[in-house]
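[Automated response] Your request has been received and processed.

Submitted sequence:
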Amino acid sequence: MLTYYDHADRNESKIALTFDDGPNPTHTIELLDILNQNKIKATFFLLGKWIEMYPNIVKNIFERGHLIGNHGYSHSKLNENFEKTQQLLKEITGDAPKYLRPPYGDLIYPGLRKLENKIKIIRWDVSASDWKQPGEDFIIDSILKNTKNGSIILLHDGDHKDSKSGRCAQMLKVLPEIIKELKKQYMLVRLDEMKLIPSNLPV
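Generated structure:
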């Protein structure tokens, strides 16, 4: 059985914004400014190939107090070098990540077994499919209607195919409004500030 986490304690009004596929030289910086203006912390699942390209952005994320997780190296559907990304992040931040989100949320990767005892495998229970650029109203409605106590919300500040992609522009445009509405009911925190509830799958 492989243990993973897709939500936290439903009795606590804490939720987590998580962002995949960065760092992105434009969107990640813009996102960090939005989070800072709203005085909240988030969790970033970064790709190794972009970490190598933009180490200073990784440092920026870390120095602003956000949590950094491992999203694999290349976002492959078949195999992933999670350990290489662990090492890259350890060199930049001084500590290896304790949270990992496999590409596509899949639990099929052989490398997960090696890391299972020293890392938490994270999925999600709310997604706005923002990477498809479905429209600003759709993104807002998807998040606000589906979020509940303990939710882990999946968003993207990057693109695994293009390091400079602009596909996250819709999400960034509406994120301040989303945060404003969520803060009326929830505390927005890093994953390590939540009581995560484990699930198991026979993998």
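Summary generated for your ticket: The longest strand covers residues 14-22. The radius of gyration is 16 Å.
If you did not submit this request, please reply to this message.
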